[in-house]
Amino acid sequence: MFSMNNIKQFVENSLGRWRSQRSAHHLTFRHFEAVQSVIDIAAISPDDRAVMELCQLYNVDPSQAVMPFQMSWEGESDWDENSEVKGSCILVPIPDPNVPNRGKLLRDQGYAETIAAAGDYHITEDGTFVLLTSYEHAAAEEKIWFANPNLRFRVSLIKTSGGSGVVTASFSSEIRSLSGN
Q1: Is the Cβ–Cβ distance between 106 and 58 less than 8 Å?
Q2: DSSP helix/strand/coil, 89
Q3: What does the pLDDT look like over 41-78, one tens digit per residue?
Q4: How does pLDDT run across 116-130, given as a tens digit for each residue?
Q5: Residues contacting 52, CB < 8 A, separation 6+
Q6: Which burial class, exposed, middle or buried, applies to 134 when counting CB atoms under 10 A from its CB (0-12, 13-18, 19+)?
Q7: Alpha-carbon distances of 5 from 39, 122, 146, 150, rounded to whole Å
């Protein structure tokens, strides 16, 4: 496994265009969904207005931000033929100065709910990035790891707000586009 030692390395290795194949099980609806998408991950300046506003929203000094980035995605789902899966969000990692490989990840748009969110991340010894985010009506757990520099995997669980029940479970394989397309 291709391993990351810190949040800076993780973000640097995530930059670029990725082709994603995601399978999701929506347990509430008893429905399986297949999603194919293109994900673009680009570094943005810590001085970017959106980064500054997000830090201000969470009372965080913007100088603590490490490798802020923007993620945008566009794809198709087989759930609804007319449904286009697309969006973008700003993400700002804020490492914990006292605990290595732990911190907060600020997002202007969450994964489980489309509101600003702050999750807790840590990077395991084997380089897996783990993000836990609590929302008003749900909780999300995401794990991302690299098999090699151009292949990464992502597992996501959306749970009830109390964390006792799983609403959605998904698995994604993401391959870096080396041609720029």
Answers
A1: yes
A2: strand
A3: 999 999 999 999 999 999 999 999 999 999 999 998 88
A4: 899 999 999 999 999
A5: 62
A6: middle
A7: 23, 11, 12, 17
